[in-house]
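$ run holo --ligand "zinc ion" --emit tokens
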Amino acid sequence: MNSRTVQIDTACKGSKYEILIANGILNNAGNWSRDILGSGTRRILLVSDRKVYGLYGEKVLGSLERAGFKVGKAIIAEGERSKSWDTASYILSSLSEFGITRSDGIVALGGGVVGDLAGFAAAVHLRGVPFLQIPTTLLAMIDSSVGGKTGVNSVKGKNMIGAFHQPHGVLIDIHVLTTLETRELTSGLCEAVKHGAIAGRHILDPIADLVRDHPVIKLKQELANSDTFRSRLTSIIEMQVAFKAKVVAGDDREALDRHDQSSRKILNFGHTLAHALESVTDYQRFKHGEAVGYGILFAAELSNNLAFCDKKDVELLNDVVQSVGVFPSLAGIRPSEVSQAFGLDKKNIRGSLQWVLLRGIGKPAIISEENIPPSIMATVLAGFLSRFA
Ligand SMILES: NC(=O)c1ccc[n+]([C@@H]2O[C@H](COP(=O)([O-])OP(=O)(O)OC[C@H]3O[C@@H](n4cnc5c(N)ncnc54)[C@H](O)[C@@H]3O)[C@@H](O)[C@H]2O)c1
Ligand SMILES: [Zn+2]
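-- output --
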């Protein structure tokens, strides 16, 4: 099967990079890193979590060493609770102790948690060192590894501390998805549906068709055994990444004053409820993408109640989201705590929460909360929470 590449342009001069997608290319991580970083780079700090390092760490480390790098490691505990200031501080200490200079580099091997943390450390260590992403979850492949948003959570909420720092390159080996838990695949598929909802049917339909043809519990089997399936998944990842890259290229710092339908803010579709659900359950109940799955349905329903979008669009999104997997229930989550968590969301700019809603599939709209009658919000939220309890 052939590899695919997607070129990423950023507004920042000189920070173009490439995303390489193929099957079974982890062994080549060293040469790939060398091509990007050049012959002057001596040291690399490999950042990973315990689980991913246990599965793929030795392979990547060996490949980096064969390409002539001196490699240090910073291995963190897996899971969202690691996306903290303390873990970032541990990685920053490891960078200093290992003597990483501005002519060295960082390789992030893992899901979105590892990528966001390693990217943040890369942004602030010596005011910025090169970093490369090797995403190992579907979510990280199609979403978090692209676009340069890095950061950690604080006690006040998700991603409250962070920086924009573009990677120098992204290497996607789809074979690693064969070891991913089914819930994590569902989580990644939800972010893919999010892209489809805001991009249009040309991005949404391939995902809907994929999960219609192959139930999510069979995906890993298909991936291990079928060339046709691997090609299909590769082109879906390529389309997804290209869509995100296009949005990011047009607004790479998520400009505060932009509210048009090409603004980077549209990528937050489904995320206002998602962040609130994650926060009120202390990041324990939902995978990030599962919370986004609920967020997509809620935003679509709210859009319909405000007469922005048709019932048939809400039904289509419901069908697709329900077919990407089974979600933990919303039992015990009260409307009042969710409303309170909305207020903490970082998109709460100048005291006003910006909702990303839909005027139809592929037609996102950024709507300020003052333009949403509180009674409609309260009714939709209460109905939604009780329906999925
Ligand atoms: N920076 C961005 O633009 C952006 C975009 C979307 C999401 N995010 C962030 O990404 C994070 C979620 O990322 P995630 O869903 O990848 O979660 P994650 O990094 O926690 O990974 C999920 C789990 O899968 C395991 N895992 C990873 N790869 C594996 C593999 N190949 N085989 C077996 N197990 C594997 C990990 O150890 C972990 O337990 C959130 O913090 C979210 O805020 C960031
Ligand atoms: Zn997300």
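-- notes --
The pocket of nicotinamide-adenine-dinucleotide (ligand 1) is lined by residues 49, 51-52, 55, 78-80, 83, 110-114, 116, 136-137, 139-140, 143-144, 147, 149, 159, 176, 179-180, 184, 187, 288-289 (CB under 6 Å).
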